[in-house]
């Protein structure tokens, strides 16, 4: 079989070839057989559970949940339409974009799953490595291949890591799940220090890329900021070095206690120096030639990614400037929801999936189809899912923005709130999740309504508000400037507030719990008082997180627990 | 199944629940031995008696095409049994954020004749 894709190449996306497609078809056939054997009773639930989890199928509160992989968050329009079709035909007409740049469907039937996986395979998609103690979907910067501040396109290396890690025989049964994130810009847009391995790329002295390597970060029960193992790992050693890290983890990571099994616990137990020594010992003993990531390999992978054929900038910037002047609401949206592009005349657009009072990350099938159409018309057929549960069109000409915004407005997708208090991250919580203590979505909706006023949000300025329904922290609550954690008080839901977390700035920090849990409504009121305190006490131009760091949590705690 | 959800007081009463194997949907064990999507049909056991019934149902889960059989403590009200935990109330009623997705929700609503 030849290992060469058919043209034209999908923009921003690795082109599958017949080898990849045959593999996926075989996986679907294998799972179809497993489902049949489960239904006939030939496989027990205990035998079947690991098999379904390997295909992204969980049993949640109300039904099965299917988690579909979106490698490094990139979709083409055809894939988005395939997701819309699944939502419409096999689910209840919507899907939920997650903080790991994947999508979850909440109402899946076991019987339908082989057909759904076949539909995904036809669109070069799957649900492999979305569960289990393997290397999970590698996440990447949502402005990859577009951002003005980018050093290299991290998707190429994310794809290399995907190929290296998929079905890697040594790494299918790690002590616990393993999450890697990669950023191609000096600005950390991937929460690199909250991952098992976080990579930040920059150009080295010889013009070849080097990576800063962070290890042992994570959220969950034991939130830890990752530590730096290497400052300047050459590209050619990327695979060898990561392999060495994983070998050390595989050998010494704990398998006796699920709560102590992540690599972060190993790094803390050994200390970073001892951990680094062991990785280096493994690294020097390896057959480095075998793992060498040759420039030609990188070039070959890069060649499988389509690149946009940009139009000359022309008068695009001038036209945009006029339109912004003429329409104030549009101007505000441009300010919050666009990001500087390296190509003159273009920008990247973040489409907010957080309308006032809406469910963060939930998108209906008709919205998915609309997004696919817009991607075809305006962004070379390419879409990205962000780890903050929004959707990005990477390459939009500046003179097309006004029309785009108007269409989005008409379809509930035009909210100008990216980076503001209502751009809330929330996990599915107790409305869907079998592990939850409390519901995440209703409190997100109440807060989103409470702060819906665009003027108020702009007044408050940049603020990250993250909500998890339990200590597993899928909603990244510790990484929020304000975090909310759902707890269980003898069968009733309650919420704790954390303050001072940050994932995306020079100072990464873990939010601290400020006090006892409260009811949903009390928590919403407490957060409103925290915001009032910030507005009253900030200095000119000071952002919430900065005021929080300057004053410490005490004044906010007093406000939160003050009763009228 | 998470043991936390299968906790019962010595006193009190409970119902038996599971997820259907084929579609994952939640069902409740009725007095006639059938499994109903509606908790109002559920047979209420006293906590003293439920263990035997549970054991039997867990043993026959495969034959009944069920997974995750366990007991849920309830308060008995005029409109039927109501679970004491928020988790089980959400299981019984559907996600609170989609009021239309109650257990009555049908996958394939009857098509009206042309
Ligand atoms: C509804 C089904 C889900 C289940 C059963 C589940 C389960 C878990 C568990 C057990 C952990 C803790 C792992 C550990 O600390 O070792 C975890 C962490 C995490 N999950 Fe989920 N999760 C679910 C949904 C989601 C969703 C919807 C997202 C994205 C919004 C997500 C993203 C994450 C992230 C980012 C973490 C924390 C980061 C880390 O691994 O340290 N999960 N999840
Ligand atoms: S944080 Fe807890 S409640 Fe939320 S999705 Fe993760 S496991 Fe479920």
TrEMBL record, chain A:
<dbReference type="InterPro" id="IPR006067">
    <property type="entry name" value="NO2/SO3_Rdtase_4Fe4S_dom"/>
</dbReference>
<keyword id="KW-0408">Iron</keyword>
<dbReference type="Pfam" id="PF03460">
    <property type="entry name" value="NIR_SIR_ferr"/>
</dbReference>
<feature type="domain" description="Nitrite/Sulfite reductase ferredoxin-like">
    <location>
        <begin position="340"/>
        <end position="410"/>
    </location>
</feature>
<dbReference type="InterPro" id="IPR051329">
    <property type="entry name" value="NIR_SIR_4Fe-4S"/>
</dbReference>
<keyword id="KW-0560">Oxidoreductase</keyword>
<dbReference type="GO" id="GO:0016491">
    <property type="term" value="F:oxidoreductase activity"/>
</dbReference>
<dbReference type="InterPro" id="IPR045854">
    <property type="entry name" value="NO2/SO3_Rdtase_4Fe4S_sf"/>
</dbReference>
<dbReference type="Pfam" id="PF01077">
    <property type="entry name" value="NIR_SIR"/>
</dbReference>
<keyword id="KW-0349">Heme</keyword>
<dbReference type="GO" id="GO:0046872">
    <property type="term" value="F:metal ion binding"/>
</dbReference>
<dbReference type="InterPro" id="IPR005117">
    <property type="entry name" value="NiRdtase/SiRdtase_haem-b_fer"/>
</dbReference>
<dbReference type="GO" id="GO:0051539">
    <property type="term" value="F:4 iron, 4 sulfur cluster binding"/>
</dbReference>
<feature type="domain" description="Nitrite/sulphite reductase 4Fe-4S">
    <location>
        <begin position="422"/>
        <end position="559"/>
    </location>
</feature>
<keyword id="KW-0411">Iron-sulfur</keyword>
<feature type="domain" description="Nitrite/Sulfite reductase ferredoxin-like">
    <location>
        <begin position="64"/>
        <end position="122"/>
    </location>
</feature>
<dbReference type="InterPro" id="IPR036136">
    <property type="entry name" value="Nit/Sulf_reduc_fer-like_dom_sf"/>
</dbReference>
<feature type="domain" description="Nitrite/sulphite reductase 4Fe-4S">
    <location>
        <begin position="131"/>
        <end position="282"/>
    </location>
</feature>
<keyword id="KW-0004">4Fe-4S</keyword>
<protein>
    <submittedName>
        <fullName>Sulfite reductase</fullName>
    </submittedName>
</protein>
<keyword id="KW-0479">Metal-binding</keyword>
<dbReference type="GO" id="GO:0020037">
    <property type="term" value="F:heme binding"/>
</dbReference>
From TrEMBL, chain B:
<feature type="region of interest" description="Disordered">
    <location>
        <begin position="86"/>
        <end position="114"/>
    </location>
</feature>
<protein>
    <recommendedName>
        <fullName>DUF2849 domain-containing protein</fullName>
    </recommendedName>
</protein>
<dbReference type="InterPro" id="IPR021270">
    <property type="entry name" value="DUF2849"/>
</dbReference>
<dbReference type="Pfam" id="PF11011">
    <property type="entry name" value="DUF2849"/>
</dbReference>
